[in-house]
Amino acid sequence: PAEAPILSVENIEVVYNDTIQVLRGLSLHVPRGQVVALLGSNGAGKSTTLKAISGLLGLENGAVTAGRILFDGAPTGAEAPHALVRRGLFHVMEGRRVFEDLTVEENLTAATFALSGRGVKAASFDLVYEYFPRLHERRRGRAGYLSGGEQQMLAIGRALVASPKLILLDEPSLGLSPILVEEIFAIIARINRQMGVSMVLVEQNAAVAFAIAHTGYIMETGKVQIDGPVERLARDEDVREFYLGTG
Ligand code: ATP
Q1: Can you tell me which atom of ligand 1 is nearest the CA of 44?
Q2: CA 52, CA 49: separation in Å to the nearest integer?
Q3: Whole-prediction pTM value?
């Protein structure tokens, strides 16, 4: 039998404040080692999907009211975000939330606090610096003084410290110059290929997402509209018109 996916989201419904239903029977699967791109118009529910997976939804008064989520073969249920981090699931939120008053290295150290009990390899910082040499150059500098691109690198670097099996990336290209987007996506692709880390990538920039993803899902108002291998999606007329601007 084929190996079980690292992540299965099965028919979930999500409601905020007990009233606003945002996800309406959403399903998606991430095969081990793959990058899955999640696209869709503003407000379709992409960020909500990531928060449902990582458990951060609970911090925003949201709840999964139906369906289930399996990570690495076990239900995520009501597990707190830090417990899921220990299991190898890391969410890099939109807007690169780093601790601006801490140095780069202190930010990485802070990322290890959630891991107590699992043990942090000293080598994990070296790994981050290997992928992001710029962070090494600035390791003693305040994170608040980093450029937007470098802060995004640090946000991803904090995920690497956790020896993740699955990283959820929410719009890593947001607000970055095309050159930096290219640089960061090349590194994301290397992390996937070399370390075998699976990823869910929420992106507005479909062309950039398709360049590194294996599979794509397109959401509309809380559920999946189309999904399939990116090669096939890239030939779909609607996808070309609405997401790639080449229709
Ligand atoms: P965007 O790209 O604009 O972030 P998205 O596809 O990621 O869009 P979400 O951020 O998941 O969409 O939002 C989906 C819907 O849920 C929107 O209508 C939004 O207003 C609503 N929503 C998001 N967060 C909350 C919250 N904390 N409380 C109430 N409603 C929310």
Answers
A1: 6
A2: 5
A3: 0.94
**Cβ neighbours, 10 Å, residue 134:** 16
| HSE-up of residue 211 (Cα within 13 Å, Cβ side) | 16
**CB-based burial, 213-233: b 16+ in 10 Å, e otherwise:** bbbbbbbeebbbeebeebeeb
- Give the atom of ligand 1 at the shortest distance from the alpha carbon of 49: 11
The mean per-residue pLDDT over the stretch 189-196 comes to 96
Q: Whose CA is nearest to atom 10 of ligand 1?
A: 47
Say how far residue 208 (Cα) sits from the centre of its chain.
15
Q: pLDDT, tens digit, for every residue of 171-182? A: 999 989 999 999
Predicted confidence (pLDDT) per residue in 116-154, tens digit: 655 555 668 999 999 999 999 999 999 999 999 999 999
Nearest-CA residue for ligand 1 atom 16 is: 22
Question: Among 12, 31, 26, 23, which Cα is nearest to 76's?
Answer: 12
DSSP letter, residue 241:
I
User: Which value does ipTM take for this structure?
Assistant: 0.95
